[in-house]
Each structure stands twice: as C-alpha cells, then as structure tokens.
Design a protein that fits this description.
Elements (H helix, E strand, L loop, with lengths): L1 H13 L7 H7 L4 H12 L3 H19 L4 H7 L5 H12 L3 H7 L22 E7 L2 E11 L7 H8 L3 H10 L8 E5 L10 E9 L9 E5 L2 E11 L2 H17 L2 E3 L4 E7 L5 E12 L3
Antiparallel strand pairs: 1-6, 2-4, 2-5, 3-4, 3-8, 6-9, 7-9, 8-9
Helix pairs in contact: 1-2, 3-10, 4-7, 5-6
Length: about 290
C-alpha cells in the first residue's frame, strides 16, 4: 500500500502546474478516493488538499525568486484566477507577498516532498477481528462538534457533561448489541479531515429498542467492520490505537476504509488512569 501511495505522490509532483485529480490519484494508488484521503491525512499529519496547496506554493516560490517570469503568469500557471488571489495564498504560506519576495530575495517557507516508509518494530501485536454486521441503529444524543486532532475535545466534553444523568442511565440499559454499553460515534466527517472541520458526534448505544423521547436515531447499513482492542493508560492508549491502525494495520492488510460512522467503546478504570477500548471502523476488501 505504501508503495502505491508513493506512486500517487509522484503523480502530484507531475501536475503541480495542472489540476490534481484525486480520483486519478486513487487509481494510481489502487484504492478508493475516500481511503486515499484517510490514509494520507493519518500518515502525513495534514489533509491531502493542504499538502498539494503547500507543494504548489513551494514551487511557485522558487519561480518568484528566479525573477524570469511575470508574477501574473506564475499565478495562472499554479491555478490562481488572479494576481490578488495568488498574492493572498502566497503571503499566507510564506509570510510575505510575491512582489516583495522578488524585490528583496526574502527567505521563503518550503513544503518538502513526502515519501512514506513503513518502520516495523515488532514490539507488540495488534488485536483485531473483522466482522460482517447486518444493519443496526445508534440511539442517543447528537451534537455538531469541531474535529480536534490532538488533546481533549472540549466541545465533546461539554456536550457529554450536559446530558441528563437519568437519560444516560436509561440509554445504557437499552444496549443489546455489540459493541455493548455506551459508545461514542463520529459520523459525517469532512473528507479532508482538517483540524476544525465539523462532524456529527453521538453519545448513545447500539440497540433495537424504541428510541426514548428527545434522542436521535442513526441508521447504519449492513457492512464489514474491523474491530480493534487495546488496554493501557488513558488517553494515550486510545490515541496510539488510532495511529497504529492507519500507520501499521491498513498498509499491512487487504482492507481499506469506507464511508460510515466510526464507533469507540471505552471502559475506564475506577481511578480514570487506565482504559479498555474497542474501536469499530467501517472497511471493505481492497481489491487493488
């Protein structure tokens, strides 16, 4: 998988002065566009669209400093409809406008080309299973929250704290399917998965029982799920599980992610220091 991702990155480099077709990138990588975006953001730490933008502005910066081509021609070459739009994007990345950069020979910011490599440590085995599930329902409370890549998500913390304790206990009693107990469900994420983009967050249970008044139902179609489990210090063990799934498991197994809700069931130790977690991700066979 990583070799194919690197071939897709070569495609990006060949088209920095043209439109980058993410669908074509996915074909080069022999996977789906959805999974390509997921894998890239997990491995690179930034969305694919942001990487392409930064690589374009890096190469454009070299052309600006070279001084041989008019600035408007450079703007058009790299996909900007006007000199003003190019100047705004250039300044946002480099901290200086293209005209000033050319006049003064200012130092510019560079986005290096990425190459993905898999480092196998062999220190532990990832516990997982693959499950085919019929359709099911998530029943619970829903909020629209921003995506936070690292650290606590205060919007989620505040939302869960605001749920009536009696309703939380009532919901937990309705749980009658895997994963058992209260779950955190993320759905309708922006394809870029950029920091600050919004998602639907559900605090609820998987159940066939009628939904209590005031709750929301999320129908989930039948499909295949990869289920990962971990135990360890909270929240580090859970954060490392997410990282390892995309940096180690997907590149080593014949599956790719598919659109659908992502489900996390967490059980904390009495002192809150340790966690047992079960992560359910929607997947499909990667026929590439």
């Amino acid at each position: 998988m990583l070799e194919r991702l690197n071939q897709a990155l070569e495609y990006v480099e060949s088209r920095l002065d043209q439109e980058v077709d993410v669908g074509e990138m996915a074909r080069v990588a022999a996977t789906s566009e959805y999974h390509l975006r997921r894998m890239f953001s997990a491995l690179a730490g930034l969305p694919l669209s942001e990487y392409v933008r930064r690589r374009r502005l890096t190469v454009a910066g070299a052309d600006v400093l070279a001084g041989r081509v008019p600035l408007l021609e450079i703007a058009v070459r790299y996909g900007y409809g006007s000199g003003e739009a190019f100047a705004r994007a250039f300044r946002a990345m480099h901290g200086v406008g293209p005209g000033e950069a050319r006049r003064t020979g200012a130092a510019l910011v560079s986005q290096p080309r990425l190459t993905f490599r898999l480092t196998v440590e062999g220190s532990s085995s990832m516990r997982y299973r693959v499950v085919d599930r019929p359709k099911f329902r998530v029943v619970g409370l829903k909020a629209r929250v921003p995506l936070v890549h690292a650290g606590p998500n205060q919007a989620i913390i505040d939302f869960v704290r605001g749920i009536d304790r009696g309703l939380r206990e009532e919901l937990e009693k309705l749980s009658d399917q895997e994963p058992q107990g209260t779950v955190a469900v993320c759905d309708d994420l922006d394809p870029s998965r950029a920091e600050g983009t919004e998602l639907d967050y559900y605090h609820g249970v998987i159940t066939s029982a009628p939904a209590p008044p005031g709750t929301t139902v999320l129908p989930v179609p039948a499909g295949t799920w990869a289920v990962f489990t971990t135990s360890g210090p909270a929240p580090r063990a859970i954060q490392e599980l997410w990282r390892d799934v995309f940096t180690e498991w997907f590149p080593s197994n014949p599956y790719r992610s598919r659109p659908g809700p992502e489900i996390l069931r967490t059980r904390m130790s009495p002192d809150g220091a340790e966690a047992d977690a079960e992560l359910w991700l929607p997947v499909e066979r990667d026929e590439g």
